[in-house]
């Protein structure tokens, strides 16, 4: 991938989803991370395992395919919030709504969450 950035882009990381996706090993998730974090551009929502799990638990999406989950989230939230949304869901999934031991008693979303244990 790094060789392609040097050879095809003069050492500059591309700034579009299309160009990033052409790089070896770069999918939507990676492209969304780069665009949002490096360039402040929200082309989509980064959907990793935490975002996938929480989207289902919180009732934000019934889908299991990351692209379809991304589409659901993009319809629910304004474009300017997509990058932050990804970070918040990932952080929440790592710190509070932990897969094997959710901390529903500490969760600020527990009253709204259809999957809450309290």
Layout of secondary structure:
Layout: H1 2-9, H2 17-21, H3 28-39, H4 49-57, H5 66-76, H6 82-95
Provide structural commentary.
It contains 6 helices and no strands. Helices cover 50% and strands 0% of the residues. It has 118 residues and is mostly helical. The chain has helices at residues 2-9, 17-21, 28-39, 49-57, 66-76, 82-95.
What is the compact description of this entry?
This protein is an all-alpha fold. It has helices spanning 2-9, 17-21, 28-39, 49-57, 66-76, 82-95. It is elongated.
For the largest beta-sheet, the strand count, sense and barrel status come to: none
Rg estimate, integer Å: 16 Å
What structural class do you assign from the helix and strand content?
Answer: mainly alpha
Helix content: 40-55%
Beta strand count: 0
Q: Give the ordered list of helices and strands.
A: HHHHHH
Mean pLDDT: 96
* Count of runs of 4 or more consecutive helical residues: 6
- Uncertain spans, ≥5 residues at pLDDT below 50? none
Shape: elongated
Strand content: under 5%
Cα(first) to Cα(last) distance is: 46 Å
């Amino acid at each position: 991938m790094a060789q392609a950035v040097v050879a095809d882009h003069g050492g500059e990381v591309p700034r579009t989803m299309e160009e990033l996706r052409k790089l070896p090993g770069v999918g939507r998730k990676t492209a969304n991370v780069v665009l949002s974090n490096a360039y402040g551009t929200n082309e989509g929502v980064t959907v990793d395992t935490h975002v996938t799990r929480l989207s289902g638990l919180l009732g934000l999406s019934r889908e299991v395919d990351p692209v379809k989950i991304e589409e659901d989230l993009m319809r629910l939230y304004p474009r300017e919030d997509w990058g932050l949304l990804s970070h918040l869901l990932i952080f929440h999934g790592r710190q509070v709504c932990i897969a094997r031991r959710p901390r529903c008693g500490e969760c600020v979303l527990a009253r709204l969450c259809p999957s809450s244990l309290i």
